[in-house]
Amino acid sequence: MGKGSRPNLSPKKKMGKKNKRQKRKPEWQVEKEVSCLGLTVLLFTPGLMEAQYRQPTEIQRQTIGFALQGKDVLGAAKTGSGKTLAFLIPVLECLYRQQWTAVDGLGALLISPTRELAYQTFEVLRKVGKNHEFSAGLIIGGKDLKNESEKIHRTNIIICAPGRLLQHMGQTAAFHASDLHMLVLDEADRILDMGFDDNINAIVENLPKTRQTLLFSATQTKSVKDLARLSLQDPEYVWVHEKAKFSTPATLEQNYVVCALHQKVNMLFSFIRSHLQKKVIVFFACCKEVRLCAIPVPGVLCRLRPGMPILALHGKQQQMKRVEVYNDVIKKKNAVLFATDIAARGLDFPAVNWVLQFDCPEDDNTYIHRVGRTARYKEGGEALLVLLPSEEESMVNPEKLTSVQQKLEAFLAQEKEQKERAQRVSVLEGNKEVFDVFQLKLQELICKYMQCSDHFPSLQESDSNTMKKTEKETKFKEAKKVLKRNFQVNTKIVFTEEGQMVQQWPPLQRTAVPATEGEEDDGTTGINVEEARERLRREDQEFDKLEYRRKVKEKHRVRL
Fold first, then answer.
1. Rounded distance, CA 473 to CA 475, Å?
2. Where do the domains of the chain lie, and which CATH numbers do they carry?
3. Which residues contact residue 230 at a Cβ distance below 8 angstroms, ignoring those fewer than 6 apart?
4. Is the CA virtual torsion 250, 251, 252, 254 positive or negative?
5. pLDDT tens track for 260-286
C-alpha cells in the first residue's frame, strides 16, 4: 500500500447536508464511493488510515469493487502492488455486511504457499481489522495441533498453509466449512509450483459450491489458469499490468555480474562490506548454503565479521525461529538476510535496498519474485544476479574484490566439520542447457581451496570414511609405558603394637640379586627377555634359600 497524505478527493462543501441526513457508517466501513469529475473514487476510512494505508493502489481499485459485488476474481499484478489488501478488505467487508459472529463458524478461508507469507497476512489482518469483532486464526505447521483443534471451530477467518489445513480436515472432527462464504488463494502459482496441487484439489472438493473465490498471483501460468477454470465461476479478470512492457517494477534497477565459481564467496563478502548501511537479501538455491554462510555458530561469513548483522531464513528452521528472523528483518534498518526461495514470494520486508541472487534462479518466474522483494510500490530498489562464466560469457573486475581466501582456508583447516559441510554443498538446477554441471571446473576449484595444504597439514587428511580409527589402548601397552617411566610401586608394611613387623602372606618377593655389570642400562628402550629371565631365576633361587632357612629356624624353636 502506498503511504502519504490523504488525498482531497471529495470536497466537504459539495456533500453538504445530504451526508448529515444519512445514517452514520461504522468506522472501518470501506464501501464509500463518491463521484468527482465523473470518476469513481474509493476512499479509505479511519481504520485503514490508522494502519498507515492512505491511498488505494491500482489492483485494489479494480478488484475491491468486483469482490464486494460477490463476483469471483482472478487478479494479477506486479510484486509490491498491494495484493494483500485487495482481498483482505473484501473479506472483512463481506463478513461485516452479513453480521458474521463466532456462532456462524468459518466464513473466510485464506490459503498461502508458505508459513512466512501466511504469518505476514495474519499480521496485516490484525492491523486493518482491529475495529472488528471477528475471530481470526493462523493455522500453519510447527505449532500445537491439539491447541488449534480446540479453537478452530470458533474461528471466523482462517489464514493457513495447504498441508496444515488438509490435516485438520482429515483429523479434526469439529472442523467443517459447510457455511464458508469466501475462499482466497494468495500466490496461487507458487502453491502449485511447490507441489500442493493435489492438496488444493482435495481442499476445494470439501468446500461448498456456492462460495465466492478470489485468486491472486504476480505471474499468470498455465497451471494457474487451469486452477481458475476449476475453482472460479464466471470470474472477473483483473490484470493491472497486462500491457506493461516488463514484468518487474519500473523503479527496479537490475544488474548482473559474471564471477568464477571459486570467487563467488569473495564477491559476496566484498559486496556486503561495500553496503554496510543498506538492507540486503541474498538468495541461495538450498538450505545447506544458507547454513554454511549465515548461521552464527557454523557460518563462515559470520566468523569473518563483515560489519553488519547476518540473518538466515530457510525451510529447515523451526517455526518460532523463522518468525523471529522475519520480525528481526522488519525491525532492523541495515542487515543482510540469507534466504532460500521461501522468502521470495509475497513477503513484504520494508526498505530493502538490494536483492542479490547468489545462485541463478531456475526460471523467469522465480527471478521475478526474488527481485520483487525490493522496489515495493513505487519505491526504488536494485537487484544483482551472479552468473558463472558458463552461464554468461563476461568478465568481472578483479580490482573490486576483497579476497578472504586465506581466512576461509584457516577456518576450514581448524574445523573438520566445516570442511566436510563445504564439500557437501551442491547446487542442482533443472535446465541442463544453462546449468551445465560438466562446465564447472571443479578440479580448479578444489585446487584453489586446498592450495594451503602445505601450511595446514590437517587438510591433507583423507576423507572421514577412510580415516584410521583410533587404536585401542591395551593393558600390555599401558604396562609398557609404566616400565619406561620407572615407577616404584609402594608396598604396605604392617607392624604390631610392640613394633614387630607382621609377616605378610604370601610374602612380597624382593629383588635379592643386584644387577650385574652387563645388565646396566645401555640407553636402549624395551625389555631384554633373556636378561630378565636369568635375573628372575637368580632371584627365585635366593628367595627359596631364604625361605628354607626361615622354616628350619621355626622347627628348631618348636623343639626348644
1. 7
2. 46-239 (3.40.50.300), 252-400 (3.40.50.300)
3. 201, 204
4. positive
5. 898 999 999 999 999 999 999 999 999
